[in-house]
From TrEMBL:
Record organism: Culter alburnus
UniProt family annotation: Belongs to the galactose-3-O-sulfotransferase family.
Annotated Gene Ontology cellular component terms: Golgi membrane
Region spans: Disordered: 37-76
An MF annotation (GO) of this entry: galactosylceramide sulfotransferase activity
Membrane topology type: Single-pass type II membrane protein
Chief location category: Golgi
GO term, biological process aspect, one: glycolipid biosynthetic process
Keywords assigned: Glycoprotein, Golgi apparatus, Membrane, Signal-anchor, Transferase, Transmembrane, Transmembrane helix
Gene3D superfamilies from the UniProt entry: P-loop containing nucleotide triphosphate hydrolases
Superkingdom of this protein's organism: Eukaryota
Basic and acidic residues bias locations: 43-57
Name the UniProt record assigns to this protein: Galactose-3-O-sulfotransferase 3
Subcellular location: Golgi apparatus membrane
């Protein structure tokens, strides 16, 4: 009875929704709702006062060589966290917040055994995680790319771990995934080659007949259809009978599913979960594309994106409703006021730190240059000069791209460079 019974009796309604895809997506999402309330889970106590001076040190052009320090006896200021970093949703920005938090608190990161991702696109496995460093009793933060497998993740992290993730409008997500991963997802690359011969936009060529390019048996095609569902460990290829119950299990497991279109409000709720202040949550949007790397979509293309990614639409709409339930419990007026305060605090920090934004990669030094792909240009930030040593360290960390920050933290934790991926 209870939750499983309620979900089982909504399968027929959802199947009907899937037949008519677009018209009843919202109705389908409502039918998935199980009428349970979802409060924010108990949080770590907010720190009584911030440290008199944050002991940031500037990161040099090469990561500073630190030896691992004992962590077992320290007092943790926040609960352990798993952040499921979904592709092209704004996850690099949230990851940077967690990287800064973890570095300041000397947290122990669960890092991939090799490179920057947990053997993606395979489902997460305990074996993909590097060893617990000497002097640590547990992992405190896991926030590198993976394809979720909840039971396996729970074997790595403590029982009181807070699970969070981030979702974005499926149309925007798919457009960004397609452009960013054109050369690495086989289905996208095939469409790109066909488009070049036909003189048409690659995304239009793909969406006109996606089944022509998409081979579901090809492991590298996970992001080619319903990419957010794929990252969250759901069946992203087609509807099946387990989908509603799988979705219910995700809802039960995740303390907060952030929504990119309500980013500041999401961060306020995140702060309530983890006991963070506005300065902790201040951010710069990272891994952002240059304007000429974004494809403008007309209504016809948008409709085709929705149709091809209908499961992502259901997933997103469902968790948008869950998000606003949590927001209502927090207090909508309170949330609105705190989001405005966060924006003001963030803007003040940006003015202090950033001399130029949306800087082309050729004009950035190596430390602050984001990873580029063959199909898009990723822009970055230039740090303001004449900062104190402490402010420089804080500001550089805010704009540090994922790969550079990951490498720095890995070396700081283990005293060695990351292992390379095995040769093919």
């Amino acid at each position: 009875m209870g939750l499983r019974w309620l979900w089982r009796h909504r399968v027929s309604a959802l199947l009907a929704v899937l037949v008519i895809f677009l018209l009843l997506t919202l109705l389908a999402t409502r039918s998935l709702q199980n009428n349970r309330t979802h409060g924010l889970r108990p949080t770590a106590d907010r720190r009584n006062q911030r440290k008199a001076a944050e002991k940031h040190t500037p990161i040099p052009h090469q990561p500073a060589k630190h030896t691992p320090t004992a962590r077992a006896e320290r007092q943790r200021a926040h609960p352990p966290v798993v952040f499921l970093k979904t592709h092209r949703t704004g996850g690099s920005t949230v990851q940077n917040i967690l990287f800064r938090l973890g570095e300041r608190e000397s947290s122990t990161f669960a890092f991939p055994y090799r490179t920057y991702q947990f053997n993606y696109p395979d489902r997460f496995r305990v074996a993909f995680v590097d060893e617990l460093p000497e002097g640590s009793s547990q992992f405190d933060l896991l926030c590198s790319h993976m394809r979720l497998d909840l039971p396996q993740v729970r074997k790595v992290m403590p029982q009181n771990t807070v699970f969070i993730t981030l979702l974005r409008d499926p149309i925007k997500t798919f457009e960004s995934v397609f452009r960013y991963h054109t050369s690495t997802v086989p289905a996208f690359f095939s469409a790109h080659r066909a488009a070049a011969s036909e003189g048409k936009p690659a995304l239009k060529v793909f969406l006109d007949s996606p089944e022509t390019f998409w081979d579901p048996k090809e492991p590298g095609n996970g992001l080619a259809k319903n990419p957010m569902s794929f990252d969250m460990g759901l069946n992203n290829q087609k509807w099946n009978g387990s989908w509603p119950e799988d979705l219910a299990l995700l809802e039960e497991a995740f303390h907060l599913v952030m929504i990119a279109e309500h980013f500041d409000e999401s961060l306020v709720l995140l702060g309530a979960l983890l006991g963070l202040e506005h300065e902790d949550l201040a951010y710069l949007r990272l891994n952002a594309r240059a304007g000429n790397s974004v494809t403008e979509l007309d209504e016809n293309i948008r409709a085709k994106v929705r149709s091809w990614n209908v499961l992502d639409t259901l997933l997103y709409d469902f968790f948008v409703q869950v998000f606003w339930e949590k927001a209502a419990q927090y207090g909508l007026e309170r949330l609105k006021a705190e989001a405005a305060q966060l924006r003001d605090s963030t803007e003040n920090i940006r003015r202090k730190c950033v001399s130029r934004a949306a800087v082309p990669p050729a004009e950035l030094e190596d430390l602050l240059r984001p990873r580029q792909t063959e199909s898009v240009t990723i822009v970055g930030y230039e740090v303001r000069g004449n900062l104190s040593l402490q402010d420089q360290g804080f500001c550089v960390r805010m704009m540090l791209p994922e790969l550079q920050y990951h490498s720095h933290l890995y070396f700081k934790q283990y005293g060695r460079d990351m292992r390379a991926a095995p040769a093919d």
